[in-house]
Amino acid sequence: MRITTPLAGGLALLAALTACAAPQARPGDDSPYNGTEIEGAFTLPDLTFTDNEGADYNLAADSAGTTTALFFGFTNCPDICPTTMADMAQAVDRLDPAEQDRFQVVFVTADPDRDDPELLDMWLESFDPSFTGLSGTIEDTDAAAADLGISIERPEDRSGDYQVGHGSQILVFSPAGTSELMWSYGTGPDAIADDLHLLLKEDA
């Protein structure tokens, strides 16, 4: 399966993966983080989606003031998406209540044709009821992903069962909406939680 690598601001980010590929996490040489530091490489786009409760959610405005982990995937994903959400749920469980209050996980479906708010809500509930799921038009979904260096590939014929290729990285944004860290697929809950302890202290 083809793997593409996005570039941003001269930063060669770790590969943006299709739904069946998986790299190892690569921390920076001198970084205190397990993830890759991408400070200022991306900004949350000013695009409005529908959340899993049926309300409007603007990625930039409604994430303001909260450290936000953002992931693009789809509920029919056979491996990477459920594994990533399970890892995130375990990582959040390792935070203390004050840290949890200042952090959120946002899942944007790359398959809005099938993933409506009700389905997203049921699917995310199985991992952590605090997670926010977003669905939007194909155009807005692809625009947001492109702005953030995340690949999405859909088959032209989506009349039956199909898979959606998507970048498997998780991007973490500051309360001001600028990128701070990227976790590659395979970064475990302990490593994610360790990073969040440090990051949330800095973001306080």
Portion of residues in beta strands equals 15-25%
Side by side, the strands of the main sheet go 3-12-11-6-7-8-4-5
Query: How helix-rich are the residues, as a percent range?
Result: 25-40%
Question: Quick one: biggest sheet?
Answer: 8 strands, mixed
What's the pLDDT, averaged over the residues? 88
Helix count equals: 5
Name of the CATH homologous superfamily: Glutaredoxin
Helix/strand structural class: alpha+beta
In short:
With 204 residues, this protein is α+β, with helices and mostly antiparallel strands. It is 26% helix and 22% strand.
Describe this structure in words.
It is globular, with a radius of gyration of 16 Å. The protein is an alpha+beta fold. It contains 5 helices and 12 strands. 26% of the residues lie in helices and 22% in strands. Mean pLDDT is 88; it is low at 1-28. It has helices at residues 80-93, 97-101, 117-125, 138-147, 189-203; strands at 7-8, 11-12, 36-37, 48-51, 56-58, 67-73, 103-109, 132-135, 152-153, 165-166, 170-173, 179-183. The longest helix has 15 residues, at 189-203. A hairpin with a 5-residue loop joins strand 11 and strand 12 (179-183). The strands form 3 sheets. The protein has an 8-stranded mixed sheet with strand order 3-12-11-6-7-8-4-5, with helices on both faces. Strands 1-2 form a two-stranded antiparallel ribbon. The protein has a two-stranded antiparallel ribbon with strand order 9-10.
